[in-house]
Amino acid sequence: MSQSTQNFSSQQPKGMKDLNDPRFARKDIFPDLHLLDGPLQQYRYKATFDWRQMRLITDPLPVWEVKYKVWDFMQKNPLFGRSHETLPLDEQRKIATKRAFSIFNEKIFSIEQYLETPELGQKFSTAITAFDPSISVKIGIGFGMFPNVIMSLGNERVQDLVMENQRMENIGCFALTEISHGSDSQRMKTTATYDPSTKSFVLNTPNFEAAKCWVGNLGKTATHAIVYAQLYTPDGKCHGLNAFVVPLRDKKTHMAFPGVTIGDLGEKISLNGVDNGFVLFSNYKIPKEYLLSKTGDVDDEGNFITQYKDPKKRMGLSFAALSGGRVGICELATTYGITAIIIAIRYSASRKQFGPDNSNIEYPVLEYQTQQYRLIPHLASIYAVRFFSNWIGREYGKMTLKGFTGEKVSVESGMEMHAISSAGKPVSGWIVRDCIQDCREACGGHGYLKCARLGDLRNDNDPNLTYEGENNVLIQQASNFLIAIRAKGWNSFENASPLGTVAFLKDGEAILRSKWNWSKIECVMKPENQLTIMNFIVAYLLEKTFNRTKSLQSQGQSSFDVRNNSQVFHANCLAIAYGHRQIYSTFLNEIQNLPNSSSEREILTKLLSMFGANLILTTYMNVLYEGSFITNVHANELLQTGILQLLPVIKDEAVALVDAIAPPDFIVNSPLGMSDGEVYKHLENFMYQTPDTFTRPSWWKDVVYKENYLPTSKL
Amino acid sequence: MSQSTQNFSSQQPKGMKDLNDPRFARKDIFPDLHLLDGPLQQYRYKATFDWRQMRLITDPLPVWEVKYKVWDFMQKNPLFGRSHETLPLDEQRKIATKRAFSIFNEKIFSIEQYLETPELGQKFSTAITAFDPSISVKIGIGFGMFPNVIMSLGNERVQDLVMENQRMENIGCFALTEISHGSDSQRMKTTATYDPSTKSFVLNTPNFEAAKCWVGNLGKTATHAIVYAQLYTPDGKCHGLNAFVVPLRDKKTHMAFPGVTIGDLGEKISLNGVDNGFVLFSNYKIPKEYLLSKTGDVDDEGNFITQYKDPKKRMGLSFAALSGGRVGICELATTYGITAIIIAIRYSASRKQFGPDNSNIEYPVLEYQTQQYRLIPHLASIYAVRFFSNWIGREYGKMTLKGFTGEKVSVESGMEMHAISSAGKPVSGWIVRDCIQDCREACGGHGYLKCARLGDLRNDNDPNLTYEGENNVLIQQASNFLIAIRAKGWNSFENASPLGTVAFLKDGEAILRSKWNWSKIECVMKPENQLTIMNFIVAYLLEKTFNRTKSLQSQGQSSFDVRNNSQVFHANCLAIAYGHRQIYSTFLNEIQNLPNSSSEREILTKLLSMFGANLILTTYMNVLYEGSFITNVHANELLQTGILQLLPVIKDEAVALVDAIAPPDFIVNSPLGMSDGEVYKHLENFMYQTPDTFTRPSWWKDVVYKENYLPTSKL
């Protein structure tokens, strides 16, 4: 047990060389945390690196500036005042809508700027998410996804809708999923039949099972929707799912148009500011022009015209516009994970419990090995997803930009982005899910208070595992991608990887022959070696899955059955490992770009070692033994000892590490996680200022006069 | 991919030999599920066992009768009508209080009956929990724990309070935890100083950090509390924590007494019907008689008298009355897990998605390997915790009964119960935590609806991981127990195990020499062999931990540091494995008591194999390789193949397996999990009947007139 917490007296924070470094002049972004009194100080003074420098590694200054512009606006705007208690559902919808409008209206950045620096779009939304994701989701769908889809799939006939949208004259939503069909979009039942006599499409919903549902913004606010429907031409032919812009509500009265039945999906586990809705159409006519016709059009007589013969390819293209959603979810998840780990680390550094027998000394719970192991591996993985989300956001941004400017995006990079976003979204969501849960538990009883926020974070992250592709279904896109390339031979990976997520597999055969040949802790904790291990894991699982599919084929199973019967212990693990490995290597690249001797690089390297060692130990030892990569029994011990040695080292840096990624207290908004670490003062403050904390309940007579219960109970 | 779902036509359910078997005459408990039309029928007809017989294996008929008495009362009582939306906090408190009073008032069983058959007490509470745990928690604390503690720790002076309590003339609560001290109760700061002049104790709370908190029932309803305070005698000596009965509120006006400041802890992640509160005392006098004096008393002059010299031992005894809480939590968790798996299995058997290429056939998602692996291992572990909770409930019941009747409970069985409840509570809670989460994800988007209930189940189970001992701290009680016995030599386990949870360790040395010597799937899936593996795991982790503590001691670390530094990868894993192993062996015993050839025994054996194989594969392979129990690389493959072979077999039994443990639809109360499997009809019904589903929001003008946003956004 480290005694370090007992002798705290230092004049200057170890890691902060120059307190007045001009690069950190903006005190809102780089507050003087080291001047705050309180329980966190001993840790801040012990940290060996400059948290402000680290802040600029996790996001560049312009990004922090946009974030603080958003947070500053919120803090000054009465609309963003918080309530002490969960509001009624309708109230939550109302306030989220008003907040969404007011902040979007603020034009913190314009669509033009967005087209210039797509990164800002995501980070603007990140800043809002940190306050309340319902707002960013409503903006993202209503004023982001909606116009984007029109821009990428619609022809010039409908582009004016985009301008109106940016002037907030219409509010969009996106309707694909139906009550009885989600992942299996091919079988959706909503129809759009072309009527040459009126040059319009007639929309119909056969029954409730075919109602479009889970449509964010639809329940109470949207005026227009992108609707995917089976397109029928007068000759009775079905041309598969096509996207249409559909006016839903009268812009002046906000009443749904005749033929459009809009329902609210009701209360959800969380994200209740978002009014998810469902809609049924009954002979509802929309002008022909509202077909988003870039992938296929209908002439006045009703002939279907397209340059893409294969309907699957056509649908693939019309869905391509959506992969942005998966990329965005990596950032959503990262934002939740950051808030959770801030709260848990600061609380654990402030909360004292137990101490040496027969002494008055009490240790912060962060000093205990158990608590360190419960949190520090998550701190490492949150840094990992932070860098991964930045990377995939940048790469996707570049592509979108090319798309808008008409520049050609190579088929390979499109496919690789599809694959890595289909693995990265599930894996990031799961990493954050586990992080939030352990943070909740590590904060004990007080972590169960609503005001601690950990419950909301868990409930907000939960849909990340489902929407934009149910994780276990979506992730098959990644394994299919890897298996298809493998079928063409290992060397095919070289040209299949403009983004560099699978290039390493060109040496698959050599990788499969590699072995664990380390007997020193330093070696197994070395990132380069851990990457070697991750490479083997992906290659091995790919080969295992590839062989499984071959043997199932040789048994004469259909491709459908082969795919379904090669998931568990095979394709599913492969895709997850592919995601883990890319998150790991992105983190490593990030470090390799830092100045060699910098203390930030040093601590990040330790974090990466912790991330890798714990990931391998808790998830992949089976694979390494099964694949004969490990043949000696000491591998476990080396990793375990490496982790146990690193825990107390990172423990002293943990507070500064969360300071680096932390938004202001107004945004963290948890009595357990404030920057001064004064947990009990904030708890007392919160409880004493909650209405009716000390009052006798209005229904006190129901407590006192129990005779009233006899009647009801004697029915 | 099994085609079985396509050719469904059978006249009599395979597993139900005699449809009119008189043992199943009560149609409320054994409804004719096989007569219900709908998507679940094909599975019900395929099941090879009689779900009604299985029902009686999971709980005896008298228990089901008590449960149905409770559920029937609720269904007939308007107080138990459900709302479509989360109620405001104060409303939730009010309704939970009224429901608690009315059902307790119903005297479904009396305290006398409880003393006769303690099991009924737990199962009565189980039935209420299945509807809403807030009610059972309020009753359990107010009318169960409160009188029990007085009976076991108080002398005759206070026994009248027990009778009043059972007449609902007082409502109890239990105040131990303080804001800044939970697990470390020794350092609590609330004081009770004896004043000889008035023959009373004066209670004081130095500051907010010392406020008693998390006290269920305290916030709004309790009239009395059990308060643990540091007892000071006039000579200024502190005699450690002692328990007192403390009147809190005037029974007629329900106002807190002068000197008592009661606050409400506010909104929590869930369980919001329970009014958790905090309390501060300021020179608050209570009569001397209110000291619960069985473990220590004060004479009129203020001399402390006790037969237990060691204060720690004294406190141990006064806490012994609390282990019932941990046993109760095993049952709470089991109840949540049962509801979750019912919902997920029924939904997966009803929900169809995808089918063979170029066909109109759609498969229930339960037909997919991935979905099977997501749910069936959890179905197995829920059966496992069901049997474990029954076992520990019975054993604890026997002890309590002895306690009340004054019969001697052996020190050994007391210690073993303390250990196994300290491991069983965390492990059961974690098993159910993971089950609920996977059920939530496996139900996709519709599983995220509030009405699906999976979110509430997760949030309700969450505190099980924290209260009655934070899991990671509490579980050390189990490892300490094992290490202490091991220190006396393996053979000491024989006499230390009246409950039989550690007796097997008397052969520790032989167990440590045992090896994996199976090369056939049947062998590794055989429960007896899996138990051999579990035995090795516990013995190995015990030896590993024991050696770790010895080496830390030899480095001169204090016992405090040794304990803290031998948790991660050691004592913590040991205690968890001990819990897993006991859950496993309880399940096995349960099976061994069934008639040899019965089809129920057959399917339960498969469930146990699934539970064991998956537990070993996902959690313990490291240990088996590290401990050289496994030396060949095919062990993984054998377990994986065994699981893959069993999944489609159990899949066909899954619906009947959840029917066997399912409460009536009124209690399951999820559109996804009703017994007829008509998911979409129930969803439509729920949404169409939710107020304001189709209406324009009252705040529609905030949507239409956006110019209103300019002012607020231009502050």
TrEMBL record, chains A, B:
All residue ranges annotated as the Acyl-CoA oxidase C-alpha1 domain in the record: 320-483
Residue stretches of biased makeup (Polar residues): 1-13
Pathway: Lipid metabolism
Domain of life: Eukaryota
Binding positions for FAD per the UniProt entry: T177, G216
Keywords tagged on the record: FAD, Fatty acid metabolism, Flavoprotein, Lipid metabolism, Oxidoreductase, Peroxisome
Protein name: Acyl-coenzyme A oxidase
Residue positions of the active site: E468
UniProt-recorded Gene Ontology molecular function terms: FAD binding; fatty acid binding; pristanoyl-CoA oxidase activity
Cell location: Peroxisome
Gene Ontology biological process terms from the UniProt entry: fatty acid beta-oxidation using acyl-CoA oxidase; lipid homeostasis
Record carries keyword Repressor: no
GO cellular component terms attached to this protein's record: peroxisome
Species name: Polypedilum vanderplanki (Sleeping chironomid midge)
Stretches assigned to the Acyl-CoA oxidase C-terminal domain: 527-704
PANTHER family named among the record's database cross-references: ELECTRON TRANSPORT OXIDOREDUCTASE, PEROXISOMAL ACYL-COENZYME A OXIDASE 3
Domain Acyl-CoA oxidase/dehydrogenase middle: 173-283
Cofactor: FAD
Family label: Belongs to the acyl-CoA oxidase family.
Pfam families, alphabetized: ACOX, ACOX_C_alpha1, Acyl-CoA_dh_M
Region (Disordered): 1-21
Main location: other
